[in-house]
């Protein structure tokens, strides 16, 4: 165990975050997402929800300063938008990245295309429908 590192971060996920570069994308996927089908690299975080992982990842991970730094899948097929999911995610994001724009909404097929090119798909225990979030890594500031 390391001091200052969340116990929610597995060694594999911590290593993966470290390997990511500027502009690489990390997809936090709900339990229903076809991550092993679409992702080039998949890390499991079973039993954790996305808000827990955001609180673990974002103290270590600078978000890109762009409008598409966060992206969520747009519901389709007449599915209703659950505004509580986005509000929950954004609340966690704002604890660590105050000036972040709300998540861009991306159509399902376009979201799947981004998943195919994401650096990593993190499969979580998130059970809420459309509970998927893409984070684009920014440049870590020099202290």
Mean pLDDT across the residues is 94
The number of strands is 6
Mind summarizing the main beta sheet?
6 strands, mixed
**CATH fold label:** RbsD-like fold
Distance between the termini: 25 Å
The H-level CATH homologous superfamily, spelled out, is: RbsD-like domain
Oligomer state of the chains in this structure: single chain
**3D shape:** globular
Provide the structure class.
alpha/beta
Q: Describe it for me?
A:
The protein is of the alpha/beta class. The chain has a single domain, classed as 3-Layer(aba) Sandwich (RbsD-like fold). 31% of the residues lie in helices and 17% in strands. It has 5 helices and 6 strands; from the N terminus they run H-E-H-E-H-E-H-E-H-E-E. It has helices spanning 11-19, 35-38, 50-57, 83-96, 108-117, and strands spanning 25-29, 42-45, 70-73, 104-106, 120-124, 133-136. Strands 2-5-1-6-3-4 form a 6-stranded mixed beta sheet. The chain is globular and about 45 Å long.
Question: Secondary structure elements and their pairing?
Answer:
Layout: H1 11-19, E1 25-29, H2 35-38, E2 42-45, H3 50-57, E3 70-73, H4 83-96, E4 104-106, H5 108-117, E5 120-124, E6 133-136
Parallel strand pairs: 1-5, 2-5, 3-4
Antiparallel strand pairs: 1-6, 3-6
Helix pairs in contact: 3-4
What can be said about this structure in brief?
The chain is of the alpha/beta class.
């Amino acid at each position: 165990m390391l001091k200052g590192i969340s116990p929610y971060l597995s060694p594999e996920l911590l290593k993966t975050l470290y390997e990511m570069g500027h502009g690489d994308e990390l997809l936090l996927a709900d339990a229903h997402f076809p991550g092993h089908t679409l992702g080039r690299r998949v890390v499991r975080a079973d039993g954790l929800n996305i808000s827990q992982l955001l609180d673990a990842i974002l103290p270590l991970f600078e978000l890109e300063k762009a409008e598409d730094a966060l992206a969520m899948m747009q519901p389709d097929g007449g599915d209703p938008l659950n505004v509580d999911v986005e509000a929950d995610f954004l609340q966690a994001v704002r604890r660590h990245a105050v000036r972040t724009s709300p998540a861009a909404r991306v159509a399902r097929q376009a979201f799947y295309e981004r998943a195919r090119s994401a650096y990593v798909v993190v499969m979580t225990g998130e059970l809420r429908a459309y509970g998927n979030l893409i984070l684009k890594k920014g440049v870590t500031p020099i202290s």
